[in-house]
Structures are given as C-alpha cells and as structure tokens.
Amino acid sequence: MTDTLKLSIQFGGGAELLFDKIKKREVELPALKKYFPESLKEKWAIRELLVWIKDNLLKERPELFLQGDSVRPGILVLINDADWELFGELDYELQANDTIMFISTLHGG
Amino acid sequence: MPISCRTGCGRNAVLKRPKTGDALCKECFYWAFEAEIHYTITKGELFNRGDSVAIAASGGKDSTVLAHVLKTLNQRHDYGLNLMLLSIDEGITGYRDDSLETVKQNRDDYEMPLKILSYKDLYGWTMDEIVAQIGRKNNCTFCGVFRRQALDRGAALLNVKCIATGHNADDIAETVLMNVLRGDIARLKRCTAISTGSEGTIPRVKPLKYTYEKEIVMYAHYKKLVYFSTECVFAPNAYRGHARALLKDMEKIRPSCIMDIIYSGETMAVKEEVTLPTQGICVRCKFVSSQEVCKACVLLEGLNKGLPRLGVGKSSKAKKMLAEYNAKQEQEKGSLEQAIIDLDDSSNLIDDINQSNKVTKAKSCRSGSCKSNNKVSNGSTVNNDKCSSKECCTGKCKSNQGNDIDQGNSKINSLLEEYGINDAQKDIPNGNGHGSNVSKSNGEIVENSDEDGEVLFNDQDEENSCAGACGKMGSLQIGF
C-alpha cells in the first residue's frame, strides 16, 4: 500500500509558537479512508489536513489556530509558496511532496 | 492549474491581493506594493528632500517592512532622505530584549544608524518593575503612554523632521472601529490622519496607512525579511483584541472592508458643537499633551509616589477612593496639628501620637497587606526625591525637595481636575513630608485600587493599547 502522503508543513510569523516553536515538519499522512473511515472522498484536501494537524500537531490553544472548519482569519496559508486563495483554499487537493505553510499575521508589529 | 499573473507578464500568480482581488506574481506584487507606498508618500507629502526621518522600529513585521521599503524607495525615487532607526526598550525580559536583536539586524541589513532608548533611562522604571507594582491588568496603559513619549524624546535627540511608524491599514481600521465603539470622537477624528503632530512637536507619519497586513506579511515572506513575532509576555488588551477579531472575520468575507472603514473614518464629519481637546505641551516635560500635564508625567508621578493606579483607575472609583482618602487625611491632619503643638511641649510625646495614629490606621486598613505597601511607598518616596528632579523635569530642574512637592502637588491637582475631583488635593503633598502615616494611607489607596480592575480606556491615547511602535502586541493573546 502506498496510500500515504508525504508533506512538508511549515509555520511562521508566530504561528510556530503554537507548535512547540518548530517551524518545519516533514509529515506522512495515512490514507484518507484510514484516518476518516466515514469520508466519501479519496484524497486529502486542506480541510482534512487541518483536522489532522489539530489532532496530531496542535497541542495548545487550538482556537488561536482554527476557527470553524478553517484557519483563524489572519493566518495566511501558502501552498507551495503561493496564496491558497488562488487554489480553492479548503478544497485544494493535496499532492505528494506539497509544502503547506501557515503564517500568522496577528503577531507583533 | 496555476493562475497566471493578472498583468499578463506571463509568470504564475503567487497571491491574491486583498485590496483589489488581483492575482499577481512575485515581481508584479513587489512592484504594486512599493508603488502604492510611494504614491501614499508623495500624495500625502510625508517627506521633504533632505529630511532626517526616524523609523520607529520594534523588530516586528511592520517596522521591518517599513524600513526595507523606505530604503528601497529612497534610492529608487531619490527622496534624499536621511533614514535612521529608533527603538524603545521597554524593559520586558524575554520579549523586548529579543526583539531588539532583530532591530540590530535591521540596522546592519539596511545600513541605518540605530538609537535605542530605554524606559529605565527615561523614566527610572522598566516595564518589568512597573508590572511588579501595577499588576498585569493595566500595564499596557503605562507601556503605551511611555512609548509614545519616548519616541518623541528619541526623535528630539536624533534631531529628525518626523517619525515614520509602521501602522498598517488593518491597524488604522481597527483603531477607527475602537474609537467608534468607545465613542471617542476626538480620536476618531484624528486617528485616520496620515500625518499627526501639532506645532512644535515632531510629526508622526504612516507610510503604510493603506497597506494591508496580509501584503506586508507576504512581502516580508517573499523578500525573506527577518522579523520578530513573539507575543508580549504581559496582559492582553481584550477590548482591542475583540475589535481585531471582528475586523479579521469581516475581512475574510469582504476584504475591501478595511479600506472602507478607513474611508469612513476619514470622511466622517464631527458636529461642530462637539468640543475636542486641543493638543498642547505638557507644562512639566514639554512634550506633546492634550492636558496641562501629560499622561506620562501623571503615570510616572503615581509610580514614584507609590500610587501606581493614579492615572489608570476608572474616574468614578478613583473619586470614591480619593474621597475616602481625603476624609482620612482631614482626620489625620487634625492629629498632626496636635502633634506639632505637642512637639513644642515635649518631643517625647511624638512617639505616643504616632503610636496612636498607627493604631487608628491599622483599624481602617482592610487587610494586612498595607505593611508591604508601606515599604514600597517609602521606597518610592526616596526614589522620587531623586528622580523628580532628574527624570520628570528632564534633568533641567535642580529643585530641592520642597519644590518637588509643589510640582507634584500642582500636577496631581491638574490630574484631579482632569478627573473632576477637585476636593482631594491636599492629600498628596504630605506624601513626602510625613513618612509613615501618609505612606500607610498611600498603601491603603493602592490596596483599594487593586480591586479596581477596570481601565479608563478613554484616557488612553490612540496608540496606547500596545498599538504604538509595537503594533498589536496588546491584542496578541486574544488576537493570537
């Protein structure tokens, strides 16, 4: 089975403070069906990735990172270094070796 | 499928601009971002050729991007500006000490001179020490007020024409919203001004006034600018945090709302019958103030006299507090007069009188904590004798202690007038004169006010809420 999905997940602009101050992580997601048995979809999208991050990486104050089923407004998401707003945001289907970056705009000045 | 750049340059777009909705590539984004700031600068006539300009630098994203862009534009468009960095060290361990390292990095990267002024040098207190006195609830008031003035002082030292701050469009919109929510018409009117400063003061300019936060962060990211993004270790400003969260939620639905709120703020007309405070000069420190004595001097006086909440309490509570205090003083005055009469007869009696005073005081004290406050007050009194002449009077005043008391008195008087409390003026001068009794009373005031957690927001300056040089620090815990 080669259903796992390798991704690079990065945090910046202060978002890393919610993730043990680690800015870069290499992760391997299991097959979507394994992680969400009820899911009707086959492929991981950002929407599911956020849940996975919440379950696996986010240790404190989830409300500062997530709001509803999306990221908290003010946190920018970059897919392979480009604005996720150009790629359908939550519905973007993750590809192998994608780099997903979360940058907080809410920190400092 | 990659989206191509809206300009037709042939490259792939990397971001969607919140202001226009355009999808742009990196190069076209840089160009648009910088061109808009250049337009803001020229349209607003923010600078003149040959000006020295201090960039208020916190090490955060806004001031880092501001320094970078100003340097770039200064070269590209030959503004002829002499740019320098001005930083304020509030004395917050684990926060500002780290961010100042980033500022030093900016200094090296952008080859600009850097001046760092510390609260400790200017006021005799670090924020760490202030928080130890005031607690974590109202400390942002001190920090904001002191920073505002510290920037003025730094700019005077550097002999610059103006101070450029990193306030961005989101900040301005947030401030408009805050002032509406507080009904603060005076600040509502002036908070959207791109250049502020009355005659005789050093103007503040906001070149990033129309620049979205998202674009600032994306610019810094793509340009690989190093900035500091740790939250302030002290308490959040919850109210501003909520305004900020609301704004971000609305921006998500309709990004242009940021510009629209600024536009509303700019064009809103204020009824003529609304009286606005006029900005003048503090009689004490000679820096800009809308009161006779500026907020920084009032707060500092409170700290030095062991009444750290003098400038931050809610006026109604402060009034009640001071009325109680006043009554006590009257009573005490009687016994002190008695003591003076007795002093003529026999000095031995004084001990007895003091003793009896102490007993009375002890009864009225609500908890045992006044003893420690007493110590603090005494310590501060000593400090005050020293610093009133050195810091409060900007080093010019060589007055003896008696004069200090008078100054303190007049300052406190105007503070009290400011709060509409005219009847409590007599209390304060005793603070220096008669050690233990009055200090004890001070202690009680401190203790009472500890129960008062509310901040008088209306007394905060537009940039007080940790939205001065440090942008949104105050709202970080809420704002993330």
UniProtKB/TrEMBL annotation, chain A:
Positions of modified residues (1-thioglycine): G109
Coiled-coil residue windows: none
Keyword tRNA processing: yes
Pfam families: Urm1
Main location: cytoplasm
Crosslink (Glycyl lysine isopeptide (Gly-Lys) (interchain with K-? in acceptor proteins)) position: G109
Keywords: Cytoplasm, Isopeptide bond, tRNA processing, Ubl conjugation pathway
Cell compartment(s), UniProt: Cytoplasm
Modification after translation (UniProt): C-terminal thiocarboxylation occurs in 2 steps, it is first acyl-adenylated (-COAMP) via the hesA/moeB/thiF part of the MOCS3/UBA4 homolog, then thiocarboxylated (-COSH) via the rhodanese domain of the MOCS3/UBA4 homolog.
Database matches in SUPFAM superfamilies: MoaD/ThiS
Signal peptide limits: none
Pathways per UniProt: tRNA modification; 5-methoxycarbonylmethyl-2-thiouridine-tRNA biosynthesis
Family to which the UniProt record says this protein belongs: Belongs to the URM1 family.
Function, in words: Acts as a sulfur carrier required for 2-thiolation of mcm(5)S(2)U at tRNA wobble positions of cytosolic tRNA(Lys), tRNA(Glu) and tRNA(Gln). Serves as sulfur donor in tRNA 2-thiolation reaction by being thiocarboxylated (-COSH) at its C-terminus by the MOCS3/UBA4 homolog. The sulfur is then transferred to tRNA to form 2-thiolation of mcm(5)S(2)U. Also acts as a ubiquitin-like protein (UBL) that is covalently conjugated via an isopeptide bond to lysine residues of target proteins.
The protein's name: Ubiquitin-related modifier 1 homolog
Taxonomic classification: Eukaryota, Metazoa, Ecdysozoa, Arthropoda, Hexapoda
Automatic annotation (TrEMBL), chain B:
Keywords: Cytoplasm, RNA-binding, Transferase, tRNA processing, tRNA-binding
Pathway(s) per entry: tRNA modification; 5-methoxycarbonylmethyl-2-thiouridine-tRNA biosynthesis
Enzyme Commission numbers on file: 2.7.7.-
SUPFAM superfamilies attached to this UniProt entry: Adenine nucleotide alpha hydrolases-like
Domain tRNA(Ile)-lysidine/2-thiocytidine synthase N-terminal stretches: 53-229
Family: Belongs to the TtcA family. CTU1/NCS6/ATPBD3 subfamily.
HAMAP family on file: CTU1 (MF_03053)
Protein's job: Plays a central role in 2-thiolation of mcm(5)S(2)U at tRNA wobble positions of tRNA(Lys), tRNA(Glu) and tRNA(Gln). Directly binds tRNAs and probably acts by catalyzing adenylation of tRNAs, an intermediate required for 2-thiolation. It is unclear whether it acts as a sulfurtransferase that transfers sulfur from thiocarboxylated URM1 onto the uridine of tRNAs at wobble position.
Name of this chain's protein: Cytoplasmic tRNA 2-thiolation protein 1
Origin species: Loxostege sticticalis (Beet webworm moth)
